Amino acid sequence: MFKKIMKGGHRKPSKSDSAENYAFGPPGSHKPGSVVVNHASRPVLKAPEQNCSPSAPIAPPPLSTAAVEPLPLLRDVPVSERQSLFLRKLQICSYQLDFTNMLKTVREKEVKRRTLLELVDFFQSGSGKITEVCQEEMIKMVAINIFRCLPPASHENTGPEVTDPEEEETHLDPSWPHLQLVYELLLRYVVSSDTDTKVAKRYIDHSFVLKLIDLFDSEDPREREYLKTILHRIYGKFMVHRPFIRKAINNIFYRFIYETERYNGIGELLEILGSIINGFALPMKEEHKLFLARALIPLHKPKPVATYHHQLSYCVTQFVEKDYKLADTVIRGLLKYWPVTNCQKEVLFLGELEEVLEATQSAEFQRCMVPLFRQIARCLNSPHFQVSERALFFWNNEHIVGLIAQNRHVVLPLIFEALEKNILGHWNQAVHGLTVNVRKMFVEVDAELFEECRRQYEEKTAGAREVEDQREMTWKRLADVAGEREEGIWLQSN
């Protein structure tokens, strides 16, 4: 997560934002990672003002070989000529080239690559102060290069067959050597101290931001990493965009949860939100609480939750740490979406639940402890040893043990039967040993309560055996009657 703090914008904060502080981190490393690829036929968000489809590519200027010629370096020309030369270099970088055939337009690709490198170095050197006209043209050049139709994802080429996102083959964008430089140039422009927010927001507007967010569905993790860093910096520097960015991300989550369950950048968007949530001021706005209840908690429902659960768990835990009164809402939400047949997902939920309980106070714990420990009791008896073991690890956490000890008269009767069943018959020895330790802990805390629970359990077990014996006797009598009747019919027939 982002650790450092970056002050955003030069204007006075608006009333809606004045109560919030946001933590912003450094640009981050942009190392090539393993990858994946996406598409153009997805539904898109609409910006409130003049906005074309976020995925729609911007028409590039017609390619002329004569136009893509090397130009002198910026540092080699007089200062008075640098702005015009800068514009000519932007024009070269605006030509889109075909990267599906690496042997095609090789010279033009190399000229464009070197020009982009020079522009990045120009901003990185600290001499990145450019006129407003140059800023406008540079953002246009960036838009021409990065706003494009994403290629179809692998699962969209296979018809109705459903595949696991974690098992899908990763794809690299062949144009990445140029795209990376364009993203780096945009990042340097956004973070530069010479960039005037009042001027830049005319070009980095809602339409631009919305198209940028739509690119998070790219299957290339290198591109998503750059997008994450750039959007995070925009959020920090352009305070006017903050509510819009939060709403746009919210809408992506809704579409992912309730419609597609397919989106590559959920984890990266959650990383940005984790930093934003960390900076929320108290008392927390109702808008943020609704976001937790309507978007973050339902994000536990989709099947690919394992691909982004770490980031999701961090965001949810941040809410509880900010406002401990939200613990009851979060715990009940987790119980609502608790997996029934997916044991690996259940292990993830138990880990997140422990983190939430660590930030939970006694009053909130008491509100949800009955449904909570009914679920934990089911986990204790899970035949999957990792689920049972993970649930027993709760008793290694001092804070949770303290909450259980304070409310042992409610908790122990709920889980006593599960503990006894594990001791009597769980197949895994590690689970058996951990259960014995938990049982011993309850005996040491309140032996009288433990004996009362054992007495009730033995009475319940005896009653269940008696009912079972009566059922067997009833079936035996019915079988005898049926046998006698069948014998009588046979005798009559003979």
TrEMBL record:
Residues 1-13 have a biased composition (Basic residues). One of its GO terms (molecular function) is protein phosphatase regulator activity. It holds the Pfam family B56. GO terms for biological process: signal transduction. Residues 1-37 are annotated as: Disordered. It is found in: Cytoplasm. GO terms for cellular component: cytoplasm; protein phosphatase type 2A complex. Its main location: cytoplasm. The keyword Magnesium does not apply. Gene3D superfamilies: Leucine-rich Repeat Variant (1.25.10.10). Keywords: Cytoplasm. Signal peptide: none annotated. Belongs to the phosphatase 2A regulatory subunit B56 family. The B regulatory subunit might modulate substrate selectivity and catalytic activity, and also might direct the localization of the catalytic enzyme to a particular subcellular compartment. This is Serine/threonine protein phosphatase 2A regulatory subunit.
